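Input (structure):
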């Protein structure tokens, strides 16, 4: 299922071969920096450039012996390059290569995710325009409250995901750093200018200070930004799931020809996409917690973070890419059913006018608490008799003494609830 929505380049990005290629980019950048400083002679540099290559199978064979992936990687390069390979990894420790390569991978993955945000935001904006003025029942605690519009529902989601994109963009810049400072970050063999030049070649900036690693608050920020967006995805999907319930039935997910909802009940059309994305969003949020646990390491570093990151880096970025595209597809194919929207709007007998009546009484000089009791009596009668609330209010002698028929006509004008819709939308899209 994921392959249908997740682009191949995101999945390929985290392949073992591509990760080794990222390591190789870092090793070559360091060699180029040393070459420019005169530490590597032209012939050796030529041999390194021409002969170096990733051999995944050979790395695996060597790792069976070394039990160290970076050493196995370097050993395989030495076999291909020959004597000039003595300059490869000069002054570097494993984390120099891995952490700097992580930046390359996380940035590339992040740029794909940002493109996914753009597509989702465009779809949400289309929904805002499509459902402008469609009045629906607003609900608090799951209970009818006052009317809103579908346009405002989608505008709220748009505003949130604009924030998610901005927040993630900032986190992406936070991980755009390389670290080439040696075993404990003191440049025993390497130098700050070698680090700066290698990072420049790679399109990164040097971390201002590192130990043996780039500190993991940067990573935690990245994965937390994804987790917050995952919470937003679940918020949209939870809303859509509620709106698809049989008793509500204001929206439907697209249902393809030949699709089936249940092995036992042929009538079923279930909100499977929204449900699926709610579950995947929980995984993304869980991974953010794991990234925070990676912040506290022993002294200049230990290796307890490594195994975690081998899981959460590909998992969270692939899942986020997937859910952003799947949610976009869901919204593109969403069916809103206006007749059911209107049915539900009046399903609570117009009780949503209660605040308007209360406010009108107060505006006409009535004490608030006395006004509240008068309106509540009418509201409870409407609930029990299932009679329209406006009709009961108009018959109320207590209210009629204060509010004329003309005032009540204004109070019960449904367009009152949409008078600021355009102003709110202008603020969202300014």
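Output (sequence):
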């Amino acid at each position: 299922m994921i392959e249908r929505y997740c682009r191949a380049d995101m999945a390929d990005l985290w392949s073992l071969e591509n990760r080794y290629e990222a390591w190789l980019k870092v090793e070559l950048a360091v060699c180029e920096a040393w070459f420019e400083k005169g530490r590597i002679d032209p012939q050796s540099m030529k041999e390194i450039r021409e002969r170096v290559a990733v051999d995944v199978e050979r790395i695996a064979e060597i790792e069976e012996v070394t039990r160290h992936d970076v050493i196995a990687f370097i050993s395989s390069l030495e076999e291909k390059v020959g004597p000039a390979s003595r300059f490869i990894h000069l002054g570097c420790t494993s984390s120099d290569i891995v952490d700097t390569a992580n930046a390359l991978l996380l940035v590339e993955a992040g740029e794909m995710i940002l493109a996914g945000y753009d597509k989702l935001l465009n779809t949400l904006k289309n929904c805002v325009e499509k459902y402008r003025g469609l009045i629906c029942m607003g609900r608090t605690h799951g209970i009818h409250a006052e009317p809103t519009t579908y346009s405002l529902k989608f505008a709220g989601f748009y505003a949130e995901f604009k924030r998610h994109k901005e927040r993630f963009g900032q986190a992406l810049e936070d991980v755009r750093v390389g670290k080439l400072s040696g075993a404990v970050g003191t440049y025993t063999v390497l130098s700050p200018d070698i680090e700066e030049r290698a990072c420049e070649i790679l399109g990164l900036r040097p971390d201002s200070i590192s130990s043996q690693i780039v500190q993991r608050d940067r990573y935690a920020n990245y994965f937390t930004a994804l987790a917050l967006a995952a919470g937003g995805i679940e918020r949209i999907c939870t809303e859509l799931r509620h709106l698809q319930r049989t008793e509500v039935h204001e929206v439907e997910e697209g249902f393809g020809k030949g699709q089936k909802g249940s092995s036992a009940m042929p009538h079923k059309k279930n909100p499977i996409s929204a449900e699926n994305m709610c579950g995947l969003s929980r995984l993304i949020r869980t991974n953010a917690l794991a990234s925070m646990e990676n912040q506290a390491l022993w002294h200049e570093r230990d290796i307890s973070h490594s195994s975690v990151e081998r899981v959460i880096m590909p998992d969270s970025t692939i899942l986020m890419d997937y859910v952003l595209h799947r949610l976009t597809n869901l919204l593109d194919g969403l069916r809103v059913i206006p007749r059911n929207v209107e049915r539900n709007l009046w399903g609570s007998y117009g009780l949503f006018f209660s605040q308007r009546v209360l406010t009108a009484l107060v505006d006409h000089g009535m004490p608030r608490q006395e006004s509240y009791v008068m309106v509540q009596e009418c509201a409870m009668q409407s609930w029990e008799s299932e009679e329209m609330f406006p009709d009961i209010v108009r018959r109320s002698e207590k209210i009629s003494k204060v509010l004329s028929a003309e005032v009540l006509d204004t109070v019960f004008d449904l367009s009152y609830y949409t008078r600021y819709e355009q102003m709110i939308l202008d603020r969202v899209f300014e």
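Notes: Strands lie at 135-140, 143-149, 177-178, 205-206, 251-252, 335-336. The longest helix spans residues 94-130.
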